[in-house]
Amino acid sequence: xxxxxxxxxxxxxxxxxxxxxxxxxxxxxxxxxxxxxxxxxxxxxxxxxxxxxxxxxxxxxxxxxxxxxxxxxxxxxxxxxxxxxxxxxxxxxxxxxxxxxxxxxxxxxxxxxxxxxxxxxxxxxxxxxxxxxxxxxxxxxxxxxxxxxxxxxxxxxxxxxxxxxxxxxxxxxxxxxxxxxxxxxxxxxxxxxxxxxxxxxxxxxxxxxxx
Amino acid sequence: xxxxxxxxxxxxxxxxxxxxxxxxxxxxxxxxxxxxxxxxxxxxxxxxxxxxxxxxxxxxxxxxxxxxxxxxxxxxxxxxxxxxxxxxxxxxxxxxxxxxxxxxxxxxxxxxxxxxxxxxxxxxxxxxxxxxxxxxxxxxxxxxxxxxxxxxxxxxxxxxxxxxxxxxxxxxxxxxxxxxxxxxxxxxxxxxxxxxxxxxxxxxxxxxxxx
Lengths: 211, 211
What we know:
By secondary structure, chain A is an alpha/beta fold. The interface between A and B is large, with 63 and 63 residues.
């Protein structure tokens, strides 16, 4: 039984579902057909009780004692997360990071396709980066609206992140993955997630024995 | 008063300290000298009560009603997180992502310096990437040991991530930032953090109205 997402599912639970989906995909690649909350928990270093509890928000998906059918669980989690469809994504910023993102092959089979790469620098506009030709920012609004693109990745310097985010929201983008090391402010109905490697490094150095 | 880190501080609290540090750095760049838990909270979308509680684990740092002196708080949080020193970091994987990481200028002023870039592909070894010459994996052990390097960033394909992680741990690395979209297994005293943009994208699509 698939329960429709409701707003009483904690966001921290939603945040773990992509990890489950990734681990399940890996198990499937290894040729497995069935798994258990214990096996998933070992892979992810999350307790099996937590996993069962998280999945129970959506109606379960497995019978006690028989484990989970991997294919079925992948399908159900993909539906819950709405990645049983392909989302088009724009990347803003054609520096080293934007280029690396545009070349990354790991988006496509997990629900996302990079559709356009934008930059505002005259030297970059028109350049060919892999399969993309860098488009000027002034075309962003039209393209995003015309193609109903809902998701953007922000790979611009920190000082431009807020103004580009405003521009994206204005164009109709509803979710921003921000690689700039700065918090951006957006209307409450817009999703923002952050990728900042330094925050992860600093989290780990807390635990290291000093040099 | 600075309280020494102890193991009864929840890891989730430690994980927020780099966000506080980043926001404080930004406030300082804006020319501010004093801030409050309310101002920080607004920037980070974290409640001011949470911020005060988190900081109280380390003895406070501010007086009720007068706010926090930004420079002082930066210094104290940097000390707690041990980023009042510069950590050398190796990057393994000289593909697009490893190259982007090696060019990224945001590490240096936040406690980290990329010291070496490794790859195992004969076509990449010896290539010049910015200021780095790509070194062969067979030299990793010697270099990491000789220079007492404790931190590595893993930018290799998923299928190689575990074996490279084993190699890094063997060489004495204590903290790994893993960009490969796969969970790796390491001894309990080794820190691992993950960067996987797709998990963030999938987290956000849960909330989007379908196409």
